[in-house]
Design a protein that fits this description.
heterodimer; A: 272 residues; Rossmann fold; six-stranded mixed β-sheet; four-stranded antiparallel β-sheet; 8 helices; B: 11 strands; 15% strand
């Protein structure tokens, strides 16, 4: 997919001209290596001493107070914690939706928190898949169009039409994989919660991401649907080696994951 | 691609936004209708004015006129060369016209215009505004038997038909009056004799008184008889000696109104008629002068100081340009008649003076250039003539219409601008409603510019739909404007377009493609401008806050 996608070349002569996730091997770049105890060769995403606070009516609320976090490639990492402990904030920082007040975020040994807005948009589009508690499908689009949306966003009108049949084929196979090939032309409001979350997963996978960020993917579902979503994610992880970072407050779910961290008082403790 | 898809879907699912665009639609439709009607009016008016007025006029303010018009004509031809299509000379005068109607004399102010019947039609569309078909071909100031605009019932009978009838009636009435008077005289004479014989039988004390009375009566009656007879002769012959002064009428000839006409005059139709409504509300013309009637015109002679002279003319036709200002004041007579009556003919050279020289240019000639050339030829400081184009003469009127059109356009564009604020508000609402979707799109990697272009594109689409529908509505309205006026008349019971006021039977319209393009481009531009602020707001939205938005 990446090879067919024209990436806008930054004209600046410095190192950030080339999007960092295009650098294939991390060993070549020693300067960016972070000496944290959690870092291994397999670490794909890394947060180092990250702080983040929000201003609420003149008072500043510190949510993250120096968080170190890492997730290994091909593993399912769960972040647990109570409501308001900063789980989602950490996930948003990892997904470059927000910037930390201090500290660094690295992806594939490249720093990503200080990238330009355009590069972060590209990063989210090419390297990241995200799913949310409330699915966040676009209500005006059909299921198939929702799945295709990230591919449309990542390509110009011309290149989209050139690659249209391939993209649609992949979208249909993803819909098939999540078991929704019979509802391709339904709008989100005609689907059940579980179906919507499956659609969201298919949408997250269309650009073939390296990392899937899931923000309480089962939080709004009943036991059975939640379990089948988890099973789907687990299968994905096992079959394609997709790295998953999942925020949850359900200890049962967390127990099934490869790695587990808890956020408490703005700090991280590694449980597994 | 997602931008197009999303704006298309928003357009299809957000009907409330279409409601906000209705004002744009109405504004566009109104602008098209108003502009085409105003253009229609303006162009009709210009056509008429230009048809009546020649392109260029070389005129003098002096009522004595230009003494040597041929010298001027030669110089004009020499200067303008090939671009001249026709030149004619004209005498224009303020005058008073008197006519009799229902036994009353009516006096009215007119502009008396002496024209050269050979060349006048070459400088203006004069002929086509005359009523008689023969006069439309060529005006000869000769009264026709009949056939003046046969489709107008109110005008019939006209021409010789009318004149002969009126004269016959007049003579019959006069002879009846005469017979009655003679009868009265006879009766009173018999009565006097009776009284005298009665008196004779009375006692003689009253003799003196009765003789005086009888003598008095006898002294008065022969005089009365004589003056009445004179009056009849005078009425039959007409009060003017001018008719007799024409070469065809030898001196001493008694004018016979039933078989002869005086010098012809063509009156503006507004001088001789009024337009009103009958009891059923139908538009009707009422003519109090018809071709065939005689009118008397008083105008100044060329002396210093000028004195009023009075001449009789026979109405030979009406002139209907449908410009009420002209139709109510213009009266045309042969130029030689006016020159002779006013004493404008040079006794030595036999050349008549004129007050203005009118020039018609060829269609491809430049009016302004020709005017400036003539102004250069006859500089205002050195010569006593003025050079004006028809646009100069009608400048204030044309400017007034132009100003009206401009102000209407500004006002209507304001309406569309107000509609723009409606779109702005609606768009802000839509952006707020779509906050979460914006967050989702950003989380999927859509850049701010992409988000902004969704809403900008939405604005373009809405503007295009609104102005497109507006253009279609406006065009349909313009094409069927007279039918719509009729329906409105039927519904409201009031005349929308009153032909007694406008002199047009139908509402004139002209559609300029450029006007339509500009109006719709302007409307789309306003829709785009109105969507810029909401788009910027959408683009700047923070993804995390947008995702959290409930």
């Amino acid at each position: 997919m990446n090879s067919t996608t024209p990436v806008k070349q930054n004209t600046k002569p410095n190192a950030s001209a080339i999007p960092p996730w295009r650098v294939v091997r991390p060993e070549s770049d020693g300067a960016d290596q972070v000496a944290a105890q959690t870092v291994t060769e397999k670490t794909i995403v890394l947060a180092k001493n990250v702080t983040k606070s929000y201003r609420r009516h003149k008072t500043s609320v510190a949510v993250l107070k120096g968080v170190d976090f890492s997730a290994d490639q091909g593993k399912v990492t769960a972040i647990v914690g109570q409501s308001g402990s900063g789980k989602s904030t950490l996930l948003h920082l990892l997904g470059t939706l927000d910037k930390p007040d201090s500290g660094e975020i690295h992806f594939a040994n490249q720093r990503i928190d200080n990238l330009s807005a355009r590069q972060r948009d590209l990063f989210r589009n090419k390297k990241l898949g995200m799913i949310f508690q409330f699915y966040h499908l676009l209500p005006e689009l059909t299921l198939l169009e929702n799945i295709v949306a990230p591919a449309m966003i990542g390509q110009s009108l011309f290149s989209y039409f050139r690659n249209r049949s391939g993209i649609l084929r992949r979208a249909k196979s993803l819909a098939d994989m999540v078991g929704l090939s019979h509802r391709l032309h339904h709008k989100p409001n005609e689907l059940s919660g579980g179906e919507m979350q499956r659609t969201a997963i298919a949408r997250a996978l269309i650009t073939d991401p390296k990392l899937l960020l899931a923000d309480e993917p089962t939080g709004n579902l009943d036991q059975e649907s939640g379990q089948s979503i988890l099973q789907l994610l687990r299968n994905l992880n096992e079959e394609t080696g997709l790295t998953i970072v999942m925020v949850t407050h359900d200890e049962n779910i967390a127990a099934q994951c490869d790695a587990l961290v808890r956020l408490k008082g703005g700090k991280v403790e590694r449980l597994k | 691609m997602y931008k197009l898809l999303l704006c298309w879907r928003y357009l299809k699912t957000r009907w409330i936004a279409l409601a906000s665009i209705v004002s744009v639609t109405l504004g566009v439709a109104t602008m098209i209708v108003v502009n085409s009607v105003m253009d229609g009016f303006t162009s009709q008016m210009q056509d008429r004015m230009h048809g009546i007025l020649s392109d260029l006029v070389v005129e003098t303010r002096s009522t004595n006129g230009i003494a040597e018009p041929n010298w001027y004509v030669d110089r004009i031809r020499g200067r303008l060369g090939d671009s001249v299509q026709g030149i004619t000379t004209v005498v224009t005068l303020p005058a008073m016209m008197t006519f009799h109607h229902n036994g009353n004399a009516h006096t009215q102010q007119i502009n008396l215009i002496g024209i050269d019947k050979e060349t006048y039609a070459s400088v203006s569309d004069f002929s086509k505004y005359l009523l008689h078909p023969d006069n439309k071909q060529k005006l000869d100031f000769v009264l026709k038997q009949s056939g003046y605009a046969p489709e107008r019932e109110a005008l019939q009978p006209a021409g010789w038909e009318h004149r002969t009838r009126v004269e016959t009636l007049k003579k019959a009435r006069l002879s009846e009056m005469e017979r009655y008077r003679l009868l009265q005289e006879k009766i009173s004479a018999e009565q006097r004799q009776q009284i005298a014989s009665d008196v004779a039988t009375l006692p003689s004390t009253n003799d003196e008184v009765s003789t005086e009375a009888t003598n008095g009566d006898a002294a008065v009656s022969p005089n009365t008889t004589a003056s009445a007879t004179d009056e009849i002769n005078q009425l039959a012959a007409g009060p003017s000696s001018f008719g007799a002064a024409t070469p065809s009428a030898p001196r001493g000839h008694v004018f016979d109104a039933a078989n002869e006409q005086r010098i012809g005059i063509v009156l503006g139709i507004g001088i001789g008629s009024v337009r009103g409504r009958d009891s059923d509300g139908k538009v009707k013309d009422y003519f109090f002068i018809r071709p065939g009637d005689d009118v008397s015109v008083a105008f100044p002679n060329a002396g210093s100081p000028p004195r009023a002279i009075d001449e009789m003319f026979t109405v030979v036709d009406f002139y209907e340009s449908k410009m009420s200002e002209y139709d109510a004041t213009f009266a045309f007579v042969p130029i030689e008649a006016l020159q002779r009556a006013r004493g404008m003919i040079d006794p030595v050279s036999q050349q008549g003076a004129v007050t203005s020289i009118q020039i018609k240019l060829k269609p491809d000639a430049d009016l302004q250039v020709a005017r400036d050339a003539l102004r250069d030829e006859f500089p205002p400081a050195e010569s006593y003539v003025q050079v004006n184009s028809w646009r100069d003469t009608q400048g204030p009127l044309l400017a007034a219409v132009q100003l009206e059109t401009t102000i209407l356009n500004i006002l209507l564009f304001m309406i569309i601008a107000v509609a723009g604020f409606g779109i702005l508000a609606t768009f802000f609402m839509i952006v707020v409603e779509k906050t979460r979707d914006i967050g989702v799109l950003k989380s999927l990697g859509a850049p701010g510019t992409g988000i902004a272009s969704i809403f900008l594109g939405y604005g373009v689409l809405l503007g295009s739909v609104g102005s497109g529908v507006g253009v279609v509505c406006g065009l349909l309205f313009v094409w069927n404007i007279n039918e719509i006026a009729r329906v409105l008349e039927w519904v409201t019971g009031r005349e929308v377009f009153d032909p007694t006021v406008y002199y047009f039977d139908t509402i004139p319209t002209i559609l300029h493609p450029f006007m339509i393009v500009w109006v719709s481009v302007g409307a789309v531009a306003i829709a785009i401008l109105a969507s810029v602020l909401p788009s910027i707001r959408a683009a700047r939205m923070h993804p995390v806050e947008a995702l959290r938005y409930e």
